[in-house]
Amino acid sequence: MLVFDAHCDALLKLWSDEKISFFQDEKSLHVTVKDLWQGGVKVQLFAIYIPERVAPSDRFTVALKMVEIFHERVLAQEKMKHVRNKRDIEALKESEIGAMLTLEGCDAIGVEETYLKTLLRLGVSSVGLTWNHSNAVADGVLEERGAGLSSFGCRIVNLLDENKVWTDVSHLSKKGFWDVMELSSYPIASHSNAYSLCRHPRNLDDSQIRALISKNSMIGITFVPDFLRQGGRATVSDVLRHLDYVCSLGGERNVGFGSDFDGIDETVEGLDRAGKYDHLANTLLRYYKEEHVHRFLYQNFFDHLPY
């Protein structure tokens, strides 16, 4: 079974410690080239996430450093190949793994549209507008003010549409979410779960899930334990509960996975790294037909790429 994983934070860890090996460093990373190969991951999205501790004046520079790490330490591995679209993925050899670059939060661009244009030219194919707090584009989901898109934010969404780039609403405030639904042609939620099953502010309520489905968009079920269940150890069964729930709202062709590996400290029991995707696949096959499992793991996200 092939896998398309819509979100990981390996670049953050590689930036934080230059001694970490992307090839094989299982003590430090959930996502290594060895794990991707073992887990059947054909396409992995790598997020540029700038920690809040970085001074605003340095954030774009750090974003560029993460792009360099992507090229020098991820793509340098023999199996890894940079992909931006369906054509690139279809051109992958059987022995190759596609690596896609994303931006998690527009804090890195400040109020400079040119900075975003530069990142798009460097290969960013999906852009999350915020992390949990506010920036010049919009408020994040934990910002008490709860504002939507700014005028600048509207221009950014239009720019993403013009470039056929995903606008990622994970982490976005509710008002911002609905603004994006109105403006964007290519919205996704790369790593969010169902609020009805787990009342975490990062999860999507039923109206948001239905809105994404009605826009023929994608929702990536994430492996963050706190987003899967309230209290107790999260298991693969919890992942299936959220998948089932999105399907029950009509999202059978609008749901996939965005693990958030390397962005989490606690992991799902039996699903603690990319190399364990086979465990998830085998569990899914006990409840779904093979064609449906293939869609959930890979095809749905691939089909929804803008081009």
Descriptive tags:
37% helix; alpha/beta; 307 residues; 9 strands; 9-stranded parallel β-sheet
Topology diagram in text:
Blueprint: E1 3-8, H1 10-16, H2 33-39, E2 41-48, H3 59-74, E3 80-82, H4 86-90, E4 97-104, H5 113-121, E5 124-128, H6 151-162, E6 166-168, H7 174-183, E7 187-189, H8 206-214, E8 218-221, H9 225-228, H10 236-248, E9 255-257, H11 277-285, H12 290-303
Parallel strand pairs: 1-2, 2-4, 3-4, 4-5, 5-6, 6-7, 7-8, 8-9
Helix pairs in contact: 1-3
Describe this structure as you would to a colleague.
By secondary structure, this protein is an alpha/beta fold. It has twelve helices and nine strands. It has helices at residues 10-16, 33-39, 59-74, 86-90, 113-121, 151-162, 174-183, 206-214, 225-228, 236-248, 277-285, 290-303; strands at 3-8, 41-48, 80-82, 97-104, 124-128, 166-168, 187-189, 218-221, 255-257. Strands 1, 2, 3, 4, 5, 6, 7, 8 and 9 form a nine-stranded parallel sheet that branches. β5, α6 (151-162) and β6 (166-168) form a beta-alpha-beta unit. It is globular and about 50 Å long.
Summarize the structure.
With 307 residues, the protein is of the alpha/beta class. Helices cover 37% and strands 14% of the residues. Helix 1 crosses helix 3.
